[in-house]
Design a protein that fits this description.
The chain is of the alpha/beta class and 224 residues long. It has a single domain (10-223), classed as TIM Barrel, CATH 3.20.20.10. The chain is built from nine helices and eight strands. Helix 2 links the parallel strand 1 and strand 2. The longest helix has 22 residues, at 10-31. It is globular and about 45 Å long. The relative contact order is 0.15.
């Protein structure tokens, strides 16, 4: 079990954020991309609620939480108003109403039951809410997400704007092993005219950026 971080150092996080941005810039240079097109999302799953203000003090702008209950607790803490919050974990349909008032984007829409709750509770959503469809491009039974062949139907049925796609590739020993799945998500997004690609975590974000990621979801590389 990973320990919750209770003593976040804003200066250390700021330094790590700078290092991450340098690595993103290098990946963008290799791919012929603009580094400004890539957002760094700080995953707050293992950050204690009373440490959230320190993330904002470190220069973090975009924060993502995996759990609905933790999200509700963290957004009310001092300093949290300086962050843009997004939901990045597996979303159960019964938790949709709890998440909607707090986030500008949901990264993990993948079931008809969630689509139904988004429509039923649209009045709870913040202005400008959009979603990403989670796609299981590898067909990995251990991962959430729809099959690529289902994407057109999900987009059509989604009651809120679909900004793009998200994926979690299968466990891999090397970041290079995930490259083909990131490329597949990029091609699928292009096929459907979608611009946002949430892919890449601490272990493989540079490869994800080379393959078109516009949002990388980072935890330990920023806060450990």
């Amino acid at each position: 079990m990973v320990d919750v971080i209770q003593d976040l150092d804003p200066d250390a996080v700021a330094r790590r954020l700078g290092e991450v941005r340098e690595r993103i810039a290098a990946a963008c240079a290799r791919a012929g991309r603009d580094p400004d097109d890539v957002d760094v999302l700080a995953a707050t799953k293992y950050v204690a609620a009373d440490q959230i203000g320190r993330l904002a003090a470190a220069g973090i702008v975009l924060a993502g939480e995996n759990r609905a209950q933790s999200l509700a607790e963290k957004v009310g803490r001092p300093g949290a108003e300086g962050l843009r919050w997004e939901f990045i974990g597996h979303l159960q349909s019964r938790k949709v109403a709890d998440v909607l008032p707090h986030v500008s984007r949901i990264h993990s829409v993948s079931t008809d039951s969630v689509l139904g709750r988004l429509e039923r509770h649209h009045d709870l959503a913040r202005p400008g809410l959009d979603v990403l469809i989670e796609v299981n491009v590898a067909g990995d039974d251990a991962k959430e997400g729809i099959a690529p062949s289902e994407l057109a139907g999900v987009i059509e049925r989604c009651p809120v704007p679909v900004a793009g796609l998200m994926t979690m590739p299968p466990h891999a020993d090397s970041p290079e092993d995930s490259r083909r799945w990131f490329a597949a998500l990029r091609d699928l997004a292009a096929e459907h005219g979608l611009g946002v690609l949430s892919m890449g975590t601490t272990q493989d974000f540079e490869v994800a950026v080379e393959e078109g990621a516009t949002v990388v979801r980072l935890g330990s590389v920023l806060v450990r």
